[in-house]
Amino acid sequence: MSTTLGVLLKQLDPTLTITMVERLDGIAKESTDGWNNAGTGHAAYCELNYTSPNDDGSVNIDKAVNINAAFEISLQFWSYLVKQGLMPAPQDFIHRVPHQSFVWGERNVDMLKARHAAMSAHPAFKEMQYTEDREKMREWMPLIMNNRDDSEPLAATRIEHGTDVNFGAIARNMSKHLEGLENFTLSLNTEVKALKKKADGRWDVTIEQNGSRSKVDAKFVFLGAGGGALPLLQKAEVKESHGFGGFPVSGQWLVCEKPELVEQHFAKVYGAAPIGAPPMSVPHLDTRIIDGKKAILFGPFAGFTTKFLKTGSLFDLPKSVRFNNIKPMLSVGKNNMDLTRYLISEVMQSHKDRCNSLRQFFPDAQDKDWELAYAGQRVQIIKKDENTGGKLEFGTEAITTEDGSLAALLGASPGASTTVNTMIGILERCFHDSLASDEWQTKMKEMVPSYGESLVENTDLLLSIREHTLDTLNLNP
Ligand SMILES: Cc1cc2nc3c(=O)[nH]c(=O)nc-3n(C[C@H](O)[C@H](O)[C@H](O)COP(=O)(O)OP(=O)(O)OC[C@H]3O[C@@H](n4cnc5c(N)ncnc54)[C@H](O)[C@@H]3O)c2cc1C
Description:
- This protein is of the alpha+beta class.
- It has helices at residues 2-12, 62-83, 106-120, 134-140, 142-145, 167-179, 229-235, 259-262, 316-319, 326-335, 337-347, 351-361, 419-430, 432-436, 438-447, 459-472; strands spanning 18-21, 52-53, 59-60, 94-96, 99-104, 129-131, 154-159, 163-165, 184-187, 190-197, 203-209, 212-218, 221-223, 245-256, 268-270, 284-290, 293-304, 371-385, 389-393, 396-400, 406-411.
- The chain has one domain (2-188, 220-472): D-Amino Acid Oxidase, subunit A, domain 2 (D-Amino Acid Oxidase, Chain A, domain 2), CATH 3.30.9.10.
- It contains 16 helices and 21 strands.
- Helix 1 (2-12) crosses helix 6, helix 1 crosses helix 13 and helix 2 crosses helix 13 (419-430).
- The protein is globular, with a radius of gyration of 22 Å.
C-alpha cells in the first residue's frame, strides 16, 4: 500500500519529499510477501463470497462488479509502470492463471448456475464459462476430477484471463524505483513509535532505529502498516480512530512443490465456504508462480492469534483495547460465536485433518506430498454498530482525518488487488486541491487511463481498457 501511494505521489509531483519507514530489514516481508497471501488477483471471477442471493432467488452481483472494476485500475497502473520501464517484465510479478469456481451437491450446483446466469449477462464477466460436464471439468482441473464420486452433482465456472500476482515483487520493484529518486528516503529496521499533531497542523512522527529515537516532521502521514496500522492510528489520537478495533486471524496453507503434480494443475479453483465459516475461509486449490517457481497451494486454514503482524507481539490485541472500542469489541465477541467455533476447530486440526479437507478437492492427495506454510496476519476490522454495538467487517477501509493530514488503511480483503483504487481514494481525500490541478489530472489519466470515469457504469470503456491491459501484461490465453 505504501509503495503504491509513494509511486503515485512521486509521479504526480517529483519534487515531493517522502520518507518511508519500515520496521523490518526489507520491503514487503509481512502480508504482501509472496507466500504470506494467496496471490489471487481478486477480480470476482471465482470468489463465491463476492456475490449474494437476493430474497427473490436472483443473484446480487453489485459487489463483484465493483471489485472487478477496482482490479482493472490496478492492471492499468501496473501496465503504465511496465511501459515506462519502472517495473520489470510482467512475468516477474503477474501470470495468467484461469479463475474457476467449483462446487458439489445439488444446492451448490443450483447456486452456481444462477450465479453464472447473472454474471455472464454483465459485460465484465461475459467470458465466464459454465459446465456440469465431467469431461470438460477433467480438462479444466484433472487433479480435482480424478477418482471423484460419479453420483455427486458437480458444476464449475471458468474465466481464462484470471491472474496469480506476486504482490511482494510489485512492492519491492516499486520501492527500488523510489529509492533511485531524489528526495526519497527509505529507513529500514526503523519503527514508528508515536505520532503527535503539532499546533501548525503538521505531524511529529517519532521513529526508533537501533534503540535510538528521532523525529520526522511531516505535512502528511500515511499509516500503511498493515496489521500495525490500527495501533498507530490509536497513537495519533484522532477522533476518526474512535470505535475501531481489530480481530487478528492467522493463516496457513498446505503447499505442494512436487513437479509431477504441479504440472497437472493450472487454475485457481475456489469452492464454497462451509456453513457458518467466515468469508476469508473459502477453500481454494491454486497454482502459484513465485520467482519463476511453480507450486500448488491449498487453504487457507485459520488460526487464533493475538498478534497484529506475523512478526508482531502477543500483546498487540490486548494493548489495542480502549475505552472507545471496548463496547464494539465485546459485542463482536458475543455475537460471532460461529466464528469462534470455526477458529477453535481450525486450531485443533492435525496434518491429517487438513489433508482430509484437501481431499474434498483433490481426492488422490497424499499427506506426504504437502507441507504446512504460514501465511500473513489478517486484522479484520471491528467497528461501532448502532443496532448491535459492534460489527466485524471483512473488507478494507481507508480512514482519513477531516483535515486530510493523516490516512490509514485497515482490513484485509480484497486487499492487495485493489490497492491502486484505494490509494487513489486517499489522494482524492487528502490531496484534493493538488489533484484538481491540470498537471495532476493529466498525469492521473496517463497512469490510469480510465481515471475520472466509472468502469462500473461505462462498460465499453472497461472492455477497451481490458484489451489493452491484458495485452501489456501478457495475460491473454
Ligand atoms: C492469508 C492471507 C491471504 C491473502 N490473500 C490475498 C489475495 O489472494 N489477494 C489479495 O489481493 N490480497 C490478499 N490478502 C490481503 C493482502 O495481503 C493485504 O491486503 C496487503 O498485502 C496489505 O498490504 P499493506 O501494505 O497494507 O500491509 P503489509 O504488507 O503487512 O505491510 C505493512 C508494513 O508495515 C510495516 N510496519 C508495521 N508497523 C510498523 C511500524 N510501527 N513502523 C514501521 N513499519 C511498520 C510492516 O513490517 C510491513 O512491512 C491476503 C492476506 C492474508 C493474510
